[in-house]
Amino acid sequence: MTNARTTLPTGNAPTALDVDDPFRGDVAAAVPLAGWSQVSTVLDRARAASRAFRASSVRERIALCERAIVAMEANTDAIAKDISRMMGKPFKQAQGEVRGMAGRARYMMSVAEASLADVVLPPQTNFERRIVKEPLGVVVDLPAWNYPLLTAVNSIIPAVLAGNAVIVKHSPRTPLCGEHFAGAFRDAGAPENLVQALSCDHAITARMVGDKRVDHVVFTGSIFGGHRIQEASAKHFVNLTLELGGNDAAYVAPDCDFQNTVDNIVDGAIYNAGQSCCAVERVYVHRSVYDKFVQASEALVRAYVIGDPMDEKTTLGPIAQPAHITELEDFIADARAQRARVIVGGNRTSVDGQGRFFEATLIADVPQEAKLMQSESFGPILAVSPVDSEDEAIAKMNDSRVGLTASVWTQDPDRASRFARGLEAGTVYMNRCDSVDPALPWSGVKDSGRGFSLSHLAFDQLTRPKSLHFRLRF
User: Which of 43, 53, 125, 162 pairs as cysteine with 213 (C-beta 3.0–4.6 A)?
Assistant: First the structure.
C-alpha cells in the first residue's frame, strides 16, 4: 500500500496524536503517544505473558479467540463508527469489515489445531522423531489504516492461536482499532497483557522493532515503510512479514462474461475509494471489446455517490490522508500529458464544502509509461488500455516493480491457467478481484513484500520448528 502512511507532527517529540475526520474536519480520535519507557514496559509485560501462554493448549487458544471475536461483534456499530470517523469508510462498508474480520478469524481458528499439530515422522526401529511447532514469543503487529480490522486480524488471531503474545501498534490514522482488539481480548478473559495496544511515533516504533525482546514483526503498509522496518530490524535476527503495495492489473479477454466482468472490475477499482493494496488499478482490454468496455464502465463509474460516510446513500467516502489528494491529481495530470482521455472524474471535490474527496475516475488510452501504469495510485481511479494479444497483456501486466494480485476475465480456464503461469503475482484470479480468501496464503512478489499471512501456512510464520530426535533405548 504505497500511500498508506500518516505524517506525525514534526519538531519536538509529540505526546499526543489527533486524528482528523476526513469528512467533517474535526478531531475523530485523540490518543496519547507512548514514550520509550512506556513501550519498554509493554515489551516486558508481553515477554512475561508469552512465557506463560505458551503452555496453553491450542483448544484453549481457539476458545479464547472465539470469545474475543464475539466481543467485537457485539460492538460492531461502535467499531464501524470509529472506522468511518478516522478514515472515511462508509458506515455500511465498515460494518461489513467487522463481519469480514470475524469470518477470517474463524477460518484461522478452524484450521489451527491441525496446522499446529506435531509432525510425526515415520517410525524407525528404536527412534521417535517429530517436529514440534513452538511459539515465537512476542509478535509486534503494525497494521494499515485502509482496512484497519482486516489487516490486523490477519496476524493477531493466528499469532495468539500459535501461542504468542501480541503488541498492536496500529496506524496513526486508525489507532482506536488497536484498542478494540486489545479490549476484546481483555473482555474475553485473556491472560493479562497477552494482547496489548499502544500508539507511538515513528522513531519509537523503529526502536521497538529493533528491540531484542521482539521475536516477529508484521507490517502492512507502504514500500517506503517496509524499507524503514527492515532497516530498523537489521541489528538482530527478528522475523519479518512485510505486506506492501500493489498496482494490480486485469486482463479482459474477448470471451469474458461481459457485464459481470465490467461490474466486478469497476467495483474492484473504486470500492473503499480505491484505497486497497489489491484494488484493480490498470486494465488491459482486448481491442475487440475495448470501446464497449470503456462505454459500459463509464455508466458505473458515474453512479458512485459521494457524501457523508454515515449516510446510507453514500457509496464513495473521502480520501483518508490529507496530502493524498494532490498525489492523485498528479497521476491524472501525468496521464493527460501523455494523451490519455479522462472519461469521468479526475478532480478533487467536496460536499457542501465538507470533506476531502476525489471523484470516481475512469481514464482511457493510458500509455504504459504513465505513472498510473507504473505506480500504485491508491485512489478511486480506473486506468484502461487496449492490447492486441495475450502475450502483450502478460508483458504489460508484469511491467511493474510490484506483484500482489492480478486477474484474468475469461470463460476459458485454459487461458486463465496460461496467464497464471506467466504472471508475476502472489495471487492470480479468474473472474474475480480485490478479494482475500483466508484459506489461501496472502503474499506478494517483487516489491509487494516478503513472507505471507493467512491459510494453514501462516502458522509456519508464527512458530519455529523444534526437532525431537529420541533414541528410545540403548
Answer: 43
